[in-house]
Amino acid sequence: MNKHLLTLMIALMGIPLAAQNCFENFQYFQTITLTPPAGHSSIEPSTVAIPFNTKALVDEGKLQAEGADLRISDSNCTELPFFVQGVDERVMNVLYVKVPEIPSEGLEIQLYYGGPVNSQNQINGESTFDFFDDFEDGVIDESKWEAIGEYDVWEENNGQMRFTGSFGNGGIFKYVAPKIGFTEPVTFHFSSNASSSQVYGVADTADIKRVGLRYDSGLVSYDTLDIIALMHDTLNGGSSPGIDYPFVQVPRNELNLIAISAFLDANKKLNLTRFENFSSGGYNADTLNLQQIDFDVLRPFFASFGSPNIIEFVGICPAGVTPEISYGDEQEIITGLGQIPSGEHIKIYPVPTSHFLNIQVSNNPPKQISIYSLNGQKIHEQAFDQMVDISFLETGKYILELIYPEGATTKSFVKIADN
Predict the structure, then answer these.
(1) What is the pLDDT of residues 20-64, one digit of tens each?
(2) What percentage of the chain's residues is helix, strand, coil (to nearest 5)?
(3) CATH architecture assignment, domain 1-21+335-419
(4) 3-class SS at 307?
(5) Alpha-carbon torsion 331, 336, 338, 344, what sign?
(6) Looking at domain 132-324, which CATH architecture does it have?
(7) Taking the CA atoms of the chain, what radius of gyration do you get in angstroms?
(8) What does each C-alpha distance from 419 to 12, 21, 354, 355, 416 come to in angstroms?
């Protein structure tokens, strides 16, 4: 027997006849391809934000409301750390996925969902970001956070951190911020509200210098975040240097999914390189260099002197190149044999084969046939023929689905290389 064939057959022993799937008993998967943009040959390992409509899957009954049956892997079935907020609530949601290096030809990752009811939730922000808090334990972690100035409200409640600085004597724009600061290019991901009295932006740690992103009283539009406020204290709302930025729609008082990227140059000047509101689709990738304030480190801050500033999560990671993202079609995974029409006997031969597959049926032939890879991806479909050309397939194991008016059944076969 051909040595290659013998090795292949031994390797396939014990593989079930139904399609293999990286996660047992999951019903659906979708391929997402990440590709370096023009001018970049690759992208270093990073946390990537992938826009994705999770609510639609929940509404269709394909995904559990808390996302417990959501899994993400590479093409080799290696699980990838990920985080997602508000699975059953957000149409314009984001999957934050920690991925390995993205080569020039791109990186395929697989989303699996529709798993068993008792699936263990794998959403894990701690593994996805360098700094993370989703405020789910009901207790402010003061090893991670600090409040600058007095406050009326600083609490965790219902998976949210709420903060309101004391109004009146001593100032209005008091704030909370992570205790940790970053000196390398960094991206702040968070979900928070904003209004005239609720502000977020970038802060230092050595003192209370901050750059806030504010609304210019509806000068452009009521919901356009459009001015920079330079804040040196907590006594007022800061001064405007006359810079219009970021000019992105951020609906007031809503919990928008925001990303802010920044770095410090050699002169300690703040450079904002990205502001994105995933919830509205607004994006500004222009670099803004601010010469007015020196910074030692970078961290996000959240301030309010009216109703509380509400923060659902904060995830911080190194700023990297944003890949181009393409989405494959949803595929339903074959998880078992279908119903063979009564009295029907089916034989396929030869197995293994290199060019043609013969299908012998005892009674009525099926109407259509489909060929699937072991992860459930449909590769080929055609009207039934007793002899099927499979020479175009790569070597490996495949699933043949035979479709009848009464139902369908599956058979496995092995495609080998020419001798």
Answers:
(1) 467 878 889 899 999 999 999 999 999 999 999 999 999 999 999
(2) 5, 45, 50
(3) Sandwich (2.60)
(4) coil
(5) positive
(6) Sandwich (2.60)
(7) 27
(8) 19, 30, 9, 11, 9
